[in-house]
From TrEMBL:
Origin species: Almyronema epifaneia S1
Protein name per the record: P-II family nitrogen regulator
Pfam families, per database record: P-II
Gene3D superfamilies noted in UniProt: 3.30.70.120
InterPro entries noted in UniProt: N-reg_PII (IPR002187), N-reg_PII-like_a/b (IPR011322), N-reg_PII/ATP_PRibTrfase_C (IPR015867)
Length: 106
């Protein structure tokens, strides 16, 4: 097992390119994007009642894992984007379980 930081971002799909650019600038090259996210928070309900799937008004969820130093850089770069355009970011500790297939036998 290997300690990593988990970064979870929920934001408008219109900001996806800015967020992904931020991750890549911080050399966090692995991430997953889930589109058309719905749910509820203290800010209200986000739903797809208006059939907005795939529209620019939908939300995205981005999850990524990286080292602690990279996570600090991501937060510093991401904060202005979230402050200007909205959204939220969660940072937590996680453990990566590496596959035995990744180990070279040479």
């Amino acid at each position: 097992m290997h300690p990593v930081k988990r970064i979870e971002i929920i934001a408008s799909s219109m900001e996806q390119r800015k967020i992904v650019d931020c991750l890549e600038k911080c050399q966090v090259n692995g991430y997953s994007v889930i589109r058309d996210v719905t749910g509820r928070s203290d800010r209200g309900v986000v739903s797809d009642d208006f059939d907005l799937a795939g529209s620019t008004l939908s939300n995205i969820y981005i999850i990524s894992f990286c080292g602690a130093d990279q996570a600090k850089a991501v937060v510093a770069q991401l904060r202005p984007i979230l402050n200007q355009y909205g959204g939220t970011c969660y940072l937590s500790d996680a453990m990566e379980i590496r596959s035995m297939n990744c180990v070279s036998t040479i």
